[in-house]
Write a structure and sequence with these properties.
InterPro entries: ARM-type_fold, Cell_div_Cdc14. This protein is an all-alpha fold. The protein has one domain (2-36, 66-293). The protein is 61% helix and 0% strand. It is built from 18 helices and no strands. The protein has helices spanning 2-12, 17-35, 46-50, 54-57, 68-73, 75-84, 91-104, 112-130, 141-149, 157-171, 175-183, 186-195, 201-214, 235-241, 255-258, 262-270, 276-286, 290-293. Helix 7 packs antiparallel against helix 8 and helix 8 packs parallel to helix 10 (157-171). The two termini are 28 Å apart.
C-alpha cells in the first residue's frame, strides 16, 4: 500500500493535468478496493465459468459496499487506517494540498481543471468518512478557507455542491472545526450564496440542507473504553479519541469547550439570515439527520 500511495502522491503533486488525474484515480481505486466486496460468488467453479456465454459474463454481480463490521475486520482497511495516523502517508492532507494547487491553476477552456477539482472533492469526502481523525486538518484556517473558496459564486454548481458535501463531512462530530468555520465567516459565505439570485435551485437545496445540519445540537463524542478496541460499535469512539494524532494538537483542543448550544448557533445564523426560528422548528419536527447524529 505504501508503494501505491507513494506513486499516487507523486502524480497528484505534478503540474500536469494528466498525471494529477492518474493519481486521483489511483487513490479512488484504492478506496474502492477497501470499501467494495469483490462480488465473486463462492459457488463459482472455473470449469463452469469457461462454459458461460458472453451474455452471462456481462451479467456478473457488481461489487457491493461492505458493512462497517466487515471494514473493521478487513486487513486492507486496518493497514490503511494505520498509515493515515502518520503525517507521511495521510492521504486527505495530500489531496487537500492538490486541491489548493488546482485552485491556483488557470482554468482550462475544456473544463478539465473543474473535473480534477470534482475528483479531488469526491476522494476527500470518502477519505474523511473512512478516517475521521483526518478531519482535524480542517481545524486549520487555510484548509477551511479552501472549502469556502470553492463556494465562490464564480465556481460551477457541481463544484459548489461537492464542496458542501465535503464541508459537512469535515464538520461532522467535530465541533472544533465548526468553530473555525464560524471564525472564517463561513456562515456569511453560505448565506450569501444562498441569497444570490444567480445560485441554481439545486445548489440552494444543498445549502438549505447544510443549514439544517449546522443547526443540529452538538454533543461530545464519548471516548472508547479501550485503546485497541476495533468492534464496529466502538469504531467512532476510537476515531474521535485519536483525533489529534494526524496533525499534532493543531485544530484539536478540548472538544467539550468547543461545543455550542443550538440556541447559540441559531443566534449566530440569525445575523445573516431571516426566519431561522422556522428552520429550527422544521429541524425539530422532521429530525432529518437523526441517524447521522447517532454515529
Amino acid at each position: 500500500m505504501e508503494a501505491l500511495l507513494s506513486l499516487a502522491f507523486d502524480n497528484i503533486a505534478s503540474k500536469e493535468a494528466q498525471k494529477i488525474r492518474k493519481g486521483l484515480r489511483q487513490i479512488e481505486g484504492m478506496l474502492a478496493q477497501i470499501c467494495l466486496s469483490s462480488g465473486k460468488s463462492t459457488s463459482s467453479k472455473p470449469g463452469h465459468r469457461r462454459n458461460q456465454s458472453a451474455i452471462n459474463l456481462g451479467e456478473q454481480p457488481q461489487p457491493t459496499p461492505k458493512k462497517l463490521g466487515q471494514l473493521s475486520e478487513d486487513p486492507a482497511f486496518r493497514e490503511f487506517f494505520r498509515l493515515q495516523e502518520g503525517f507521511e502517508w495521510n492521504v486527505a492532507l495530500r489531496v487537500a494540498d492538490c486541491l489548493e494547487r488546482l485552485l491556483g491553476m488557470t482554468s482550462s477552456k475544456d473544463g478539465q481543471n473543474d473535473l480534477l477539482i470534482l475528483s479531488s472533492l469526491s476522494n476527500l469526502q470518502g477519505l474523511l468518512l473512512l478516517h475521521p481523525p483526518s478531519r482535524t486538518i480542517f481545524g486549520r484556517e487555510n484548509k477551511m478557507n479552501l472549502l469556502l473558496d470553492l463556494l465562490d459564486p464564480f465556481n460551477c454548481p457541481a463544484i459548489q455542491s461537492a464542496a458542501l458535501l465535503v464541508l459537512v463531512t469535515a464538520l461532522l462530530a467535530t465541533p472544533q472545526n465548526t468553530r473555525i468555520f464560524e471564525q472564517m465567516d463561513g456562515l456569511l459565505t453560505v448565506t450569501t450564496l444562498f441569497k444570490d439570485e444567480d445560485t441554481t435551485q439545486q445548489v440552494k437545496v444543498k445549502l438549505l440542507e447544510f443549514l439544517y445540519f449546522y443547526l443540529m445540537p452538538e454533543t461530545p463524542v464519548e471516548p472508547a473504553s479501550a485503546p485497541n478496541t476495533r468492534s464496529p460499535s466502538k469504531l467512532v469512539g476510537v476515531f474521535e479519541r485519536r483525533s489529534s494524532t494526524v496533525q499534532g494538537d493543531e485544530g484539536g483542543g478540548n472538544t467539550k469547550k468547543s461545543i455550542r448550544t443550538q440556541q447559540e448557533k441559531q443566534y449566530e445564523l440569525s445575523r445573516y439570515l431571516n426566519n431561522v426560528e422556522g428552520l429550527v422548528q422544521d429541524l425539530q419536527e422532521s429530525a432529518p439527520f437523526t441517524s447521522v447524529a447517532a454515529r
